[in-house]
Amino acid sequence: MKLAIIPARGGSKRIPRKNIKLFCGRPMIAWSIDAARASGLFDHIVVSTDDIEISAVAKAYGAEVPFMRPAALSDDYTGTSSVVAHAIQWYRAQGDMPDLVCCIYATAPFVSAADLQRGLQMLADSGSDFAFSVTSFAFPIQRAIKLTEEGRVQMFQPEHFNTRSQDLEEAFHDAGQFYWGRTAAWIADKPIFSTDAVPVILPRHRVQDIDTPEDWERAEWMFKALQTG
């Protein structure tokens, strides 16, 4: 059994009602549900939420909400792995045990069915515990600077001040879209960012964190451009 879990609690603060706020004309979470459905990979597409309104929207767009997430797993400090493990344990209590579970973020409108399919294939081919979406940093992280308490600047790695950009190792970061994992790895709370994971590399133009109103506006511009491109 393959299970998709979409975490979507109701208590978002920086962008109120973020998970169901209209994004390009549809509730944000609908885009993640659509990608999961279009992939044809999952026996169940489950939204894990503590919120009645989110539950209703999720069901309207074709997801299942077979349980309400407990308050203890719905605060600002609960990690993704705990939410996924809770869903797995719920299915186990019903007599169903998924083999593979993919956590798809509710605020990932750029996630695609093809990338989900590619992630599953990479997980199978590699024998790893996890496969998740990543993208490259646009600027060499070795030449990053920070602001001091005095309002000046300081390099994190000053030894690379004169190093040519093309001579620096490329760096990647979590794209925040999806995380395929084996059930045993989720239950054991194994670290996702480790040598037991393989990267599903995405182009930078299809990756956007959405944490502020400015992020939201930028993401909508990018999304519309991709739809018409």
Automatic annotation (TrEMBL):
EC number: 2.7.7.43
Top EC category: transferase
Example GO molecular function: N-acylneuraminate cytidylyltransferase activity
Domain of life: Bacteria
Keyword terms of this UniProt record: Nucleotidyltransferase, Transferase
Record CDD domains: CMP-NeuAc_Synthase (cd02513)
A Pfam family that the UniProt record links to this protein: CTP_transf_3
Stated name of the protein: N-acylneuraminate cytidylyltransferase
Lineage: Bacteria, Pseudomonadati, Pseudomonadota, Betaproteobacteria, Candidatus Accumulibacter
